Structures are given as structure tokens and as C-alpha cells.
UniProtKB/TrEMBL annotation:
Origin species: Flavobacterium degerlachei
Pfam families linked to this entry: Abhydrolase_1
InterPro entries attached to this UniProt entry: AB_hydrolase_1, AB_hydrolase_fold
Protein name in UniProt: Pimeloyl-ACP methyl ester carboxylesterase
Molecular function as annotated in GO: hydrolase activity
């Protein structure tokens, strides 16, 4: 564990190992525990700015790299059940109780399953642009682009982006993916996420929340106005699983709503958490 102090903030970068797995996290601030779970192909760094904001407002913020992402454990096991268990193990290792959770996309579905499986551990839940329903596979072009990069040829960052651009036309999506590139050793780039496992287990990303899963505590769903992940027709199903829930919309924002309009996302989240 590495501990550093910056101003009045306590910042920790932790490698915490349970009996089986290890999750990597960055912890900032002091107060009520707030866990932040990133989306598919992301990592905790995607939430660094907002996480730091929350840490100044009475929260001990735990930004996590989920399994097979970022600096966390690389494993052949990949499902919402195992990721929810990872969160449980993380909370146990850190003696965390009565936590609030923010989860985006895949992280949101993980948060839903965790909250409905261990409701006694969760106070409030914020789900960003994902619903409890089944989602058909829709990452084919992204996976094709990621798999088209041959790291044995030792490409540079600009070469990797040029290859990705042949498959992924959206600049923002490419930049999001490029954040997970790192120098494995001098002259050798690699992805931080476990692409080989995702190739085999992509269907796990779209799995629905179990039919009987219910969480009765306050829950806020925030959707992007330009995103099709949460439709008006999904409201009834959301209420079935989360009876004490409300749904807010950030206008002119897509699936990465927290990055596209962090100010409004923060305002909605902090108003709900306080």
C-alpha cells in the first residue's frame, strides 16, 4: 500500500488481495465510503476528476479497477456474479459498511447485482446510463479494431490510433480506448484490459439482472439524452427491480454522460447523495 498526502486529502493507491483475487483502487478523502465502478474497457482513471470532487464533500471515495481492467487481476473468470463478489471482498478487506455506489454501464450493472445480492451493505445507489435489462452484443466494431492491432510489430501510439480509426470512426471513443494503452516495457505497448477474455466472453456484458433481484433503498438512474441505453419503455422494469428509484436525464449527452457533462452529473449525484 502506498500512501501520499496532498493538501487536506488523503490519497491511497492500494493493491488489496483477498484469498483469491486482487482489485486495484485509488482512495481519496475521508467520510462516508463511496465506491465508483467504471464501464467496459475503462478504468478508475476515467473517474479521477469527479472522484476527487466527491472526496472534498464528505466522502471517502474508492475508485476501483474492475476485474480484467486497468491494474486489477487478469482472470479467465468474467461475469457480473464474480465482479459483484470482487466488490464484496473489497469491502470486507477494507471494513466498509453502509456504502454508496456510483456505477457506469458495465460498472452500473455490477453495482445493481451487488446491491441486490448484499442489500445490507449498500445505502444509496447511482446507476449511470445502463438498465437492468438484457442488452444484445453491440461492441463488434470496437473489438475488431482492438484485435487488429498487432503488438508484436511494436507499434507506437500514433500507429495504434491509425489502426483503430479504420474500425472506430468516433474520435471520443478512440481516445477513451487509448487511455488503456501503456508501455509494458520500453518500446512495447499493450492494453491494460484483458482483450483475449473479452473476445471469449463478450456475451456476459449484456446479461440481464436476475428476475427476482430487488433493491429497496434509494436509487438514482442518470441517462444521457442522446443515448439509447435507457429508454422511456424501460422505466417500468427499472421500478420493478428498484422500487425507490428516480430517473434523471442529462440533455445532449451520450453514453459517456459523466465525461460529456461532468458539471450536471456531479450536481445530480451530490444532490441525491446528500
Amino acid at each position: 500500500m502506498i500512501i501520499g498526502v496532498s493538501g487536506n486529502l488523503l490519497s491511497k493507491v492500494c493493491n488489496l488481495k483477498s484469498k483469491i483475487e486482487m482489485l486495484y483502487s485509488k482512495i481519496e478523502g475521508a467520510g462516508k465510503p463511496l465506491l465508483i465502478l467504471h464501464g467496459f474497457l475503462g478504468m478508475l482513471d476515467n473517474w479521477k476528476t469527479l472522484g476527487t470532487q466527491f472526496s472534498t464533500e464528505g466522502f471517502q471515495v474508492h475508485m476501483l479497477d474492475l476485474r480484467n481492467h486497468g491494474r486489477s487481476v487478469q482472470s479467465e473468470e468474467f461475469s457480473y456474479e464474480i465482479m459483484a463478489k470482487d466488490i464484496y471482498d473489497y469491502c470486507q478487506a477494507n471494513n466498509l459498511e453502509n456504502v454508496d455506489i456510483i456505477g457506469h454501464s458495465m460498472g452500473g450493472k455490477t453495482a445493481m447485482l451487488f446491491a441486490t445480492t448484499y442489500p445490507e451493505m449498500v445505502d444509496k445507489l447511482i446507476i449511470a446510463d445502463i438498465g437492468p435489462k438484457f442488452y444484445p452484443q453491440h461492441h463488434q466494431s470496437i473489438l475488431a479494431g482492438l484485435n487488429a492491432v498487432d503488438f508484436s510489430k511494436k507499434p507506437g501510439r500514433s500507429e495504434v490510433e491509425a489502426i483503430l480509426s479504420e474500425y472506430i470512426t468516433d474520435f471520443g471513443t478512440r481516445q477513451f480506448l487509448m487511455k488503456s494503452l501503456y508501455w509494458q516495457e520500453p518500446g512495447q505497448l499493450a492494453y491494460r484490459f484483458n482483450l483475449s477474455v473479452f473476445n471469449k466472453k463478450m456475451d456476459e456484458i449484456g446479461v440481464a439482472l436476475p428476475e427476482a433481484a430487488i433493491f429497496n433503498n434509494p436509487t438514482l438512474f442518470i441517462r444521457g439524452g442522446n443515448s439509447n441505453y435507457i429508454l422511456d419503455s424501460d422505466f417500468e422494469n427499472i421500478k420493478k427491480h428498484f422500487p425507490d428509484s428516480k430517473i434523471e436525464t442529462i440533455p445532449n449527452a451520450g453514453h459517456w454522460l459523466h465525461a460529456e457533462n461532468p458539471k450536471m452529473f456531479h450536481e445530480l449525484a451530490i444532490s441525491f447523495l446528500k
